[in-house]
Amino acid sequence: MMLSRANRLLAPSARSNVPPFIVMDVMAEAARIEAAGGHVIHMEVGQPAAPAPRTALDAATAALASGRLQYTEALGIPSLRARIARHYAETYRLQIDASRIVVTIGSSGGFILAFLALFEPGDRVALANPGYPPYRHILTALGCEPVLIDTAAESRHALTPEALIAVHRAKPLQGVVVASPANPTGTMMTAEALKVLIEAAGGEGIRVISDEIYHGLDYAFPAETAARLSDGVTVINSFSKYFCMTGWRIGWMVMPVPLVRSVERLQQNLAISVPTLAQIAAEAAFDGHEEMQAIKHGYEENRRILIEGLPRAGLEKFLPVDGAFYLYADVSRFSGDSAVFARRMLEEAHVAATPGIDFDPVHGKDFVRFCYAGSVAEMHEAVERIGRWLNSDG
Ligand SMILES: Cc1ncc(COP(=O)(O)O)c(C=O)c1O
Fold first, then answer.
1. Ligand 1 proximity of 279 Cβ (cutoff 6 Å)
2. SS3 272
3. Which atom of ligand 1 approaches the CA of 240 most closely?
4. From the CB of 181, is ligand 1 less than 6 Å away?
5. pLDDT value, residue 23
6. Stated pTM of the model
7. Which ligand 1 atom is nearest residue 246's CA?
8. pLDDT for 1 beyond 70
């Protein structure tokens, strides 16, 4: 009796009931194999193998030596915000006022702030399927309704204005999240595709959030920033991927002017400010451009090895490998369940990849995502192992 009352008191809220990240199970299994002496090639987790740029590490070391790290302004250290604004001028030839830049706790922190500032509970927000799972899980936790829209090869697996408007006509949408390059597909939207989507959404009063976390890692063609196409789009970015700073937990947003003050108030209350050490390191990271370009060239080589090697190994069907560091392969020829395929590949070939079901509840059972942010030697070895495994599999 006592227990059931206690259990009731401690029952988690319905909105906290978000699904786990299946990739975590793959990581746990890989760790078990490694503990038993196996050597696993890790292609499951979407993070760079390289450390933050030397310039960032040096700036952080100096800041630590100075002793005191205090709160900063909620929107971020002014010199970092100015440096991010300069990044838009240098990279995209685009003038963005530093007052629109908001420093965040990774792009993950940016999503929470942006969704809170843009949407009411119950609002419907469109997402491309397949897509990055936390978009839908954060929206759910905030009481919004994620609306998955299937994408197709003809649009390079991006949302199209036609699909967006058709869903909106059936039941109104208040928002849409776009990502280019995208996770898990690694596909990109052309500048024109992004433009027509933003225009279509704008015409219907649908608010656009553009996740640009993989900018800088574009191979097929240059990634366009949504900030150029409209002042009303919320752009989200991060130091995690191009700058190899996943664990530093730092990102940024370019906000529409009318929303900046709301976001500032939210951040003041939710986080006070972003970790100061990470902000100092991030500002210096922009000076490590050459080092990061060398790492990007490594990814390009990895991409080439997989595009050429995987078909020889037996995996000849995958989506266009445009950007980020992902290759999304169709494994339906080998298995009706990509989670089983991924588990067996891990156990028998010691290559870890993520089953598509993490990213796509509908068609994910046909796909596996490979992350190619590791070393060139590992890519060669992975292709070898997969080839041997698939060919011995009967
Ligand atoms: C598409 C996409 N957006 C956002 C994130 C979150 O990254 P962070 O919070 O480290 O900036 C990730 C991480 O993998 C991602 O793949």
1. no
2. coil
3. 10
4. no
5. 80
6. 0.94
7. 10
8. no
The tens digit of pLDDT for each residue in 142-200 reads 999 999 999 988 888 899 999 999 999 999 999 999 999 999 999 999 999 999 999 99
Q: Where are the alpha helices (DSSP H) in the chain?
A: 2-9, 23-35, 54-65, 78-92, 106-118, 133-141, 161-170, 191-203, 226-229, 260-270, 276-285, 289-313, 338-344, 376-392
- Mutation to probe ligand 1, out of 238, 239, 249, 325 (largest number of atoms < 8 A from CB): 238
pLDDT at 394: 47
- 84, 104, 108, 325, best to mutate for ligand 1 pocket (most atoms within 8 Å of CB): 108
Q: Helix, strand, or coil here: 297?
A: helix
| CA separation, residue 270 to residues 70, 105, 179, 266, 373 (Å) | 17, 11, 25, 6, 33
CA distance 131 to 17: 19
Between the CA of 185 and the centroid of ligand 1 the distance, in Å, is 14
pLDDT digits (tens, 9 = 90+) for 21-65: 778 788 899 999 999 999 999 999 888 999 999 999 999 999 999
Integer distance in angstroms from the first to the last C-alpha of the chain?
57
CA of 394 to the centre of ligand 1 (A): 38
